Amino acid sequence: MICLAQFFNTPLKEISKSYCKGKNQYVIKFTNLSSNLILCSYLNHYPLFSSKFLNYQDFNKVLNIIPNKQYKLEGNRVLINNIKNNMNDKRKEFNWDHLLPGTP
Protein backbone atom coordinates (compact mmCIF):
# COMPACT_ATOMS: atom_id res chain seq x y z
CA MET A 1 0.00 0.00 0.00
CA ILE A 2 2.88 2.34 0.70
CA CYS A 3 4.22 1.75 -2.82
CA LEU A 4 0.78 2.47 -4.31
CA ALA A 5 0.48 5.69 -2.35
CA GLN A 6 3.93 6.75 -3.54
CA PHE A 7 3.15 5.79 -7.14
CA PHE A 8 -0.02 7.89 -7.11
CA ASN A 9 1.71 10.74 -5.24
CA THR A 10 -0.84 10.75 -2.44
CA PRO A 11 -0.70 9.98 1.30
CA LEU A 12 -1.62 6.60 2.76
CA LYS A 13 -4.11 6.96 5.59
CA GLU A 14 -5.02 4.47 8.26
CA ILE A 15 -8.68 4.32 9.25
CA SER A 16 -10.61 2.33 11.80
CA LYS A 17 -14.22 1.33 11.28
CA SER A 18 -16.36 -0.04 14.08
CA TYR A 19 -17.66 -2.91 11.92
CA CYS A 20 -14.09 -4.13 11.26
CA LYS A 21 -13.70 -5.27 14.89
CA GLY A 22 -10.48 -3.42 15.61
CA LYS A 23 -8.76 -4.27 12.33
CA ASN A 24 -7.15 -1.30 10.66
CA GLN A 25 -7.85 -0.40 7.08
CA TYR A 26 -5.76 1.69 4.75
CA VAL A 27 -7.04 4.25 2.30
CA ILE A 28 -5.49 6.11 -0.59
CA LYS A 29 -7.50 9.23 -1.39
CA PHE A 30 -6.99 11.10 -4.61
CA THR A 31 -7.53 14.69 -3.54
CA ASN A 32 -5.47 16.69 -6.02
CA LEU A 33 -5.35 17.10 -9.78
CA SER A 34 -1.87 15.61 -10.05
CA SER A 35 -2.85 12.34 -8.35
CA ASN A 36 -6.08 12.13 -10.33
CA LEU A 37 -4.18 12.52 -13.61
CA ILE A 38 -1.79 9.73 -12.59
CA LEU A 39 -4.79 7.54 -11.76
CA CYS A 40 -6.40 8.25 -15.14
CA SER A 41 -3.19 7.46 -16.96
CA TYR A 42 -2.98 4.17 -15.06
CA LEU A 43 -6.62 3.25 -15.74
CA ASN A 44 -6.27 4.13 -19.42
CA HIS A 45 -3.40 1.65 -19.62
CA TYR A 46 -4.95 -0.98 -17.30
CA PRO A 47 -8.72 -0.60 -17.73
CA LEU A 48 -11.29 -1.96 -15.32
CA PHE A 49 -13.60 -4.76 -16.48
CA SER A 50 -16.74 -4.11 -14.48
CA SER A 51 -19.33 -1.42 -13.98
CA LYS A 52 -16.53 0.55 -12.28
CA PHE A 53 -15.19 1.16 -15.79
CA LEU A 54 -18.35 3.17 -16.49
CA ASN A 55 -17.78 5.16 -13.29
CA TYR A 56 -14.21 5.78 -14.38
CA GLN A 57 -15.40 7.11 -17.75
CA ASP A 58 -17.72 9.54 -15.96
CA PHE A 59 -14.97 10.52 -13.52
CA ASN A 60 -12.66 11.18 -16.46
CA LYS A 61 -15.26 13.45 -18.10
CA VAL A 62 -15.39 15.55 -14.94
CA LEU A 63 -11.61 15.56 -14.57
CA ASN A 64 -11.31 17.04 -18.06
CA ILE A 65 -13.49 19.97 -16.97
CA ILE A 66 -11.36 20.85 -13.94
CA PRO A 67 -8.23 22.31 -15.62
CA ASN A 68 -8.51 26.00 -16.44
CA LYS A 69 -11.30 26.24 -13.83
CA GLN A 70 -13.98 25.37 -16.39
CA TYR A 71 -16.02 23.82 -13.55
CA LYS A 72 -16.94 27.35 -12.45
CA LEU A 73 -19.14 27.86 -15.51
CA GLU A 74 -22.81 27.30 -14.70
CA GLY A 75 -23.36 24.84 -17.55
CA ASN A 76 -20.40 22.74 -16.45
CA ARG A 77 -21.57 22.71 -12.83
CA VAL A 78 -24.92 21.33 -13.99
CA LEU A 79 -23.12 18.76 -16.18
CA ILE A 80 -20.85 17.67 -13.29
CA ASN A 81 -23.85 17.35 -10.97
CA ASN A 82 -25.72 15.24 -13.54
CA ILE A 83 -22.72 12.97 -14.03
CA LYS A 84 -22.26 12.59 -10.27
CA ASN A 85 -25.95 11.80 -9.77
CA ASN A 86 -25.77 8.92 -12.26
CA MET A 87 -22.72 7.09 -10.90
CA ASN A 88 -22.35 3.97 -8.75
CA ASP A 89 -25.66 2.70 -7.35
CA LYS A 90 -27.54 5.55 -9.06
CA ARG A 91 -26.53 4.36 -12.55
CA LYS A 92 -29.52 3.44 -14.71
CA GLU A 93 -27.80 2.98 -18.06
CA PHE A 94 -25.12 0.37 -18.64
CA ASN A 95 -23.02 -0.12 -21.74
CA TRP A 96 -20.77 -3.17 -21.78
CA ASP A 97 -19.07 -2.51 -25.14
CA HIS A 98 -15.71 -2.21 -23.37
CA LEU A 99 -15.91 -5.95 -22.63
CA LEU A 100 -16.15 -6.95 -26.30
CA PRO A 101 -12.96 -8.27 -27.92
CA GLY A 102 -11.04 -5.67 -29.87
CA THR A 103 -12.60 -2.60 -28.25
CA PRO A 104 -10.50 -0.21 -26.19
Could you give a quick summary of the protein structure above?
This protein is mainly alpha-helical and 104 residues long. The protein has helices spanning 2-7, 33-45, 51-63, 74-84; strands at 12-16, 24-28.
How would you describe this structure to a colleague?
The protein is mostly helical and 104 residues long. It has a domain at 47-104. It is built from four helices and two strands; from the N terminus they run H-E-E-H-H-H. The chain has helices at residues 2-7, 33-45, 51-63, 74-84; strands spanning 12-16, 24-28. Helix 3 packs antiparallel against helix 4 (74-84). The longest helix is centred in the middle third of the chain and has 13 residues, at 33-45. The radius of gyration is 16 Å and the shape is globular.
The SSE order reads HEEHHH
Question: Structural class per helix/strand content?
Answer: mainly alpha
The residue ranges in which pLDDT falls below 50 over 5 or more consecutive positions are none
Rg is 16 Å
State the end-to-end CA separation. Answer: 28 Å
What is the overall number of helices?
Answer: 4
Major β-sheet profile: 2 strands, antiparallel
Number of strands: 2
Approximate helicity band: 40-55%
Question: Order of strands across the widest beta sheet?
Answer: 1-2
